[in-house]
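User: quick one
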Amino acid sequence: MMLKSARWRNLLTTAVAVTAMAALSGCHKKASGVNPATLGPTADTTSATPTATISADPLSIDLGQSVVLNWRTTGASAVTIDGIGQVPVNGTQTVSPSNSTNFHLVAKNDAGGSTEANVRVTVRVAAAPTAPTADASGDMGSDAAFHQAVPDAFFDYDSYELRPDAQQAATSAASYLASHPSIRVVIGGYSDERGSAEYNLALGENRANSARQALVTAGIAPSRLRVVSYGKEKQFCSESTESCWQQNRRAQFSLDR
Amino acid sequence: MFRVSRSSPSFSRALSGLLTLFVLVVCSPAQDTFHTETSSGADRIRIAVADFKPAGADAQTGSLKQTFDTTLSSDLTAAGIFDIVSKSLQPQATPGGPQEISLAQWAASPSSAAMVAFGSLAAQSGHVTVQGYLFDAKNTQFPQVLVKQYSEEATEDSARQIAHRFADEIIFRLGGGIPGIAETRIFYIKLGGGNKEVWSMDYDGANPHALTSLGTVSISPRVAPDNSRVAFSSLGRDGFQIRMYSLLLGRMVTLPIAGGTNLSPAWSPNGREFAYSSSRSGDPEIWIADSNGGSSRRITSFHGPDVSPTYNPKSGAQIAWISGRTGLPQLYIMETDGSGVQRLTDGGYATSPSWSPNGQFIAYAWNRKYGPGAPGGQDIYVMEVASKRWIQLTHDIGRCDFPSWSPDGRHIVFANSASGRAGDTTVMSMLADGTQRHALTGSGADMPNWSWK
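Assistant: Done. Structure below.
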């Protein structure tokens, strides 16, 4: 009996040892391929929180200029940017903020995880108005101060579409009007000397209206704006040269007293 | 191909002479197949215009007779339907009446006249009296075609007006029953001191005088068909607005002010409405209002400039106008309800249409090679509406614009600037085939509009 039990004990010990060795060696071999300790938790983290970055180039602009927003996300299924709305998970977009803006990006995945990213674009307001801000008496300030702050918008030949520089002029006018609430503006439409007087008056009307529309879009009340077309009846420059013609193809912002 | 309407055979005959000249004179490369069905050629009638015989005691007789003779001769020459016998080829005689004329003498070479206009002019106690005769030199038995007597206050203007009336009688009788234009007027814009005012003159450039003195920029005068009013567009605080001058009252009359820029009024042939360009909706479109400026309705609705309407004077049911809806301004026509829009020009820069009195043609200014650095100039063209075939009437004389038909459809008045500068613009007149071009004004005159009668 005693002999028998000792033999069983030995056998059991051996079996346990072999089993343990087998188990250990087996485990060790698997770990050398993919490490579950790193794999598992990482997959878990992705489903819980996407990653996101957003950048802007340049970070600082003058009023009327534009910046390129560039964002990258991983593990996100829906990405939104405040003020722009739903956007692709990776993308770029050109924006022209009218004042300094914090672009706030939120990336979400299906599991409910979300990540935020931010970039701040600083807008330098051009030509800070030096004229005294209009008071309740309805003072519009001087013409000189107005024309210094608000350049005229120039147009291409036979065109009434706002070029980028004309758009910028309209933006300047809009910001000046926004900061001087008692100012009313008359927008004069002009054309060069070529072509018919009647057609040029209609073209001048369309030019002035393009500028007016830009101001209205920028939030200026239409009641503060008046349009007068002068066609080629009032020329700024009387030479028959392209530079002169360009000067005459304009929408001019003036105080409407 | 360029068929002349048969509805008025005599008119066809008259026009055929002009159209023959179109073929002979005009070499437009794109349109060289242009010819007429009726170019068999009615010869121009050869007419001798005798100096009138001075009668009457007043010292004025001589100068009035001088004015009368010059005007009558010039009217018949300008009519474009006569072969005028040169004064140097005429007999020396100045017959004052039927008893004093030897028709054989006028019918014989070298004057070889088919018709003779003659008569007498007397200034007596403040009145000028004219006896005018038109005789057929080849008809020895019954030579008398026309006898007229006129009596007016003895002034230079009366002498000129009498000559115009007598000329119109002759033209009406010999020109296929189309009323002459010697009594018509031309309304135009006179530049001065940075302002532009509405002026009026006789069809031959005589008697120019100002109608308005608004001290601003007024443009595009258009006289009503009954000569009662002149509509135009004038710059005020609210931009360009349609204004109205009454020729009967001799002063401005009120029209309602519309929003936006309001331009280029054009009378309907019945005088009850006018079409014009208005941007009250934010974009220049063609509108039609009644003659008092009320009941406005919009006819076009397409983004881009729409200006310079002109009615078809024959039907009153169509409007030609200029639209920039596809880029550079082009010539279009439509019905007066805005339907049936057709584009007539195929490119370039087309402006200022004027529809011919018979409804067949549209005269307009066109720069066919318009563009920065492009060669070519802005010239006067005439297009036949039905076929869209066109001919060029002016060549290399500088910038031309604002053609306007005479009521007989034989003449076109237009603005021309040899240098291209606005201040150098003159009003010119020519036959509808581009010949007999001559200036009616000095520089500083623009935008002529010929009266309807």
